[in-house]
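Justification of resources, computational component.

The compute hours requested in this renewal are based largely on the per-chain cost of generating structure records like the one below. Each record pairs the submitted sequence with a full C-alpha cell output. That output is archived, and it is also reused by downstream analysis tasks.
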Amino acid sequence: MKINNVALGGVQVSVFANQGAVIDAMFDRLETQGAAVAFSMNAEMIILAQHNPDYLALTRQDCSLCFADGIGVVKAVEIKSKQKLPRLPGCELWEALMKVAGASNIAVFLVGASAKVIQQTQQQLKAQYQVSVVGYADGYFDNEQQLIEQIKSSGARIVSVAMGSPKQEQFIFRCRDAGIQAIFMGVGGTYDVYTNNVKRAPVFWQKAGLEWLYRLLSQPTRWRRQVNLLRFIGLFLQKRL
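The structure output for this chain reads:
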C-alpha cells in the first residue's frame, strides 16, 4: 500500500484523504510488518521529536504511521504537499477504529487513564459498538512485564494506550518488541473525552481549527504546552522543519 509522506523536522507525516484511509493503512501495516503503530501528530509532538531523538526514532520505524491531527501540522503538510488535507483528530480516529473492531469482532485491549475512566470506557464501548474488549488496565500499573504478558495472552489485535507522549509510545514499542502483533494507537486523553469526563471543544471551534485555543481558555495552566505551537510556526516559517 503506497502512502505519500511529508517530512516535518524528520517526522514523516502521511498524507491521508480521510479516516478510512488511515484505518486501511493500519491493517495493511499489521499484515506486512506484524504490527502497526499510529502516531497522532500535532505541533507539540513535532517539537518533542526535535528534542527527543528516541521519540523521533520511534516515529520512523517500519510499523509506524504518523497522521496529521493538530491544525498546525495539517496546514504545514498542505503547504509542503500542495494537497488539501483533512484534520484527523486522534479521538475521532480511535472511535472510528473501535466501530470497525465492533463490527468485525476484533479483540481490543485498553490501557491507560484512571481506574474509573478505563472502566467506563470499556463498558461504553461494549454497549455502543459491541466491541470485544478482552482486557483493560488503568495507567497506574505496578508490573509492566506482567501487563505486557496479559496483553499478549489476551489475543488482542488492537491495543490502545492512553498515557501521554512519549510514555505511551515507549510502552507500545516494548509491547511490540515482546512479540505482540497488533494495531497499536497512543490516544492521550481520548478515554476521558469519550466518557464525557472531559468536555471537548464545541463543533464550531473544532471546524475553525481553534480547538487548541478552546482548551487553553478552559485550562489556562496549559499555556506552556501551547507555546510549542508558536515554536512550530516559527520553525516552519524559517524553513527549519
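The first helix runs from residue 19 to 33. The mean pLDDT is 91.
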